[in-house]
Amino acid sequence: MTPVTVAYIAYMSPRRWSLAQQLLGLQLTVITVLVTGTLAGAYVQADRASLDAARQKVLGIAWTVADSPSVRDGLAAPDPTAVLQPLADRLNRDAETDFVVVMTTGGIRYTHPDPRQIGGHFLGNIDDAVAGRPLTETYTGTLGASMRAVVPVRDGERVVGLVSVGIRLTSVAQQVRARIPSLLVTAALALLLAGAGSWLVSRWVRRQTHDLGPAQLARMYEFYDAVLHAVREGLLLLDRQGRLLLANDEARRLLGLDESALGRPIGAEGLLGVLAEGVPRTDEIHLAGDRVLVVNQAPAGAGMVVTLRDHTDLQALTGELDSVRGFTESLRAQAHEAANRLHTVLSLIELGRTAEAIEFAGAELAVAQRLTDRVVGAVREPVLAALLLGKAAQAAERGVELEVAPDAEVPEAALPPGDLVTIVGNLLDNAIDAAVAAPPPRRVSFSAIRHGGSLTLRVADSGPGLDPADVSRAFERGWSTKGAAHATASTGRGLGLALVGQAVHRHGGDIEVDGSAFTVRVAVGVPA
Q1: Which pLDDT band, with edges at 50, 70 and 90, does 350 fall under?
Q2: DSSP for 153-175, written as a single string
């Protein structure tokens, strides 16, 4: 064998075949074995059927000859051979047998196709026939192996002779061989049809498996399975009817799904209902229980692929960052105002009007100190106190007066600082925006009352308030009074009240809306 031939055989090794090629080879092998076995079985069955047909034929002819009066008369004639030999030759020719032998009960032949055998002893078993019973057997006589029948010739109850009729096995074999062409044609047609079907199946498998081999498919499955379990993003595959086809570990954790959800519609409530719409989405922010998720959804084949990223902690950090940014802006504004006031005081002193300078400085200091003393005295939670001071400065810049109720009381560690910032910060932001949009005087009020194991927070503004018909939708993601152009899931608009509702829900509380007043009741000291 040449090196090229060896290389070709190595390349065409079944290990290098794709799954479709291996399946086709396996199917063709199985089909060939089955058809070959069926052909061999059919040949054996045909051989047995031919032998059975030959047995029935010789037995029937033998009885017919034995029951013939001419045979009985010939046996009684002075020269039985002269009478019976012509009759036997004619019957042998007409019945297409190989021999018809009439003999005595002792087995001495009166007839035979070979005249030299007349008078000789019959080769074969005749005991049953002598006893009056027919017999059939395969025996090798003077003409070779044959299927023969031996029956008695009766004259009344007495057996007066025997008749043997036989067909050589070579003749039976010729009949079987005559059937071989039809068997081969049938086998060829079966192979052709089965091969064509296997080829069509292999083409379908090839398209479905992208002509990959079993080892490649196994490695790909192992890789994909490892990625699905290891990736920290939730992954869902949905069909066009909204049924869940695949969900990795992270997606099940984020959405609270179990194994029973596979193969079923994912539902019509909350985020699952949004995903079931089958609309492409890019970096949309949605709420799922107590989590903030970034959702991407895109068509993939005959369904949709969905990715989920958990931004709950990031959203909390973003809220705190917004608060810090607000504090920074407030400090910058206060520094600017303080510089203006300081310049005013210095100018009054330079003009020699010291009394007016002292009065002006004292008045400004008293106003700032009153707000600080009121907030710090009532709100012992430092994060919330800083938030209120920052929001007060922010509101003042926009022409809104933020009033903190004198009896406001927020104990330290009443709620996690992050949740306090989320609840109060978003309510104050919305209140300030509503007050700015309303005619003067523009006011926002904040009050807090602790009663037993609960804390009640109330934020009200001088704005028009919510339409009662919108209250039920106000805490849904994406809803906003600023218009659809601003309330988009991808930008995060319409998320503030939804986050407030989420934080309140975590602490087993409730929210009451009365026009422009939002009242939040939460349990104090209860773990979220």
Answers
A1: confident
A2: EEETTEEEEEEEEEEEHHHHHHH
